[in-house]
Amino acid sequence: MSGAVRVSGENEPKSAGRLLSVLLLLQSRGRMPARGIADELGVSVRTAYRDLARLQAAGVPVYAEPGRGGGYQLLDGYRTRLTGMSQGEARALFFAGLPGPAADLGLAAEVTAARLKLLAALPAELREEAARTAAVFHVDAPAWYREPEQTPNLPLFVDAVLTRRAVDVLYRRWRAPQEVRRRLRPYGLVLKSGIWYLVAAAESRIGTYRVTQVLDAILGDERFDRPQDFDLGSYWTSYLDDFQTRRYTGSATIRISPRGRRRLPDNLPPEVVRAVESTATAVGDDGWVEAVIPTESTEHACGELLRLGTDVEVVAPTELRQAMAATVGVLARAYGLH
Question: How far apart are CA 189 and CA 169, in angstroms?
């Protein structure tokens, strides 16, 4: 038995979409308690009860099984034909396994609806396999020791990227003048270690903009065509390579203990760790080694190497060695040791 749902009364698209989600949940999962439906769709239990009642009033054969382990389910054999995806749900399908990024992009509801429609269209054995797979994989994009960034302008950039409309922004950058106005033509969005970046053309140059540094954004009427030969993945790889080249402008020679080498991956960037491993030479029989590492600046290198405490010694250059000694001296005086 199959059927199409007609609902009268509350006609808002959001409500109708939620009713369909309830129906598809019951179709793909079987019996579910109202609490389970509410948790899955991010609504109150009262709303779930109301939606179930509206489905029954619309002629959908939903019945309740009382008692322990009971819940709501569809009459055996009933299947809805309303499994077609909306445009928003099709967009969201790419993020079906990434609930955090989907929520950032304003696509959380669409991801849930798209996933339910896919599950409802699968045979029972494939639904079970999909459920087993979903139960053993989870993606958590943000890096350790960092709060998730607030990105209120992100949904606007999603719209701009997909509709190819220009955006006027007020952007805060690191060099003076810090706040600048730009008209951007967005080519794509990239999520890197929990941080969203917008890749966009400004005048004739393609640049990368951290979304949280956008202080204000207005979606404009100007339409643009993205270059046919532009590939977002290739651009990002090239951008990262260029960033690393510009990032490290100097080098330092250090001596590091065995314990310091073990602590390296948790305290310094992977480029520094690789440099130590590839250039290390023994300087005694106690396990200490000498290595050459890349550096950004004297101040930055001093701060990073101090994380290793007494497990590292700077040999060269002189200015970095002096900066380390001066910082240690200030710390000693602060603790009353001199």
Answer: 16
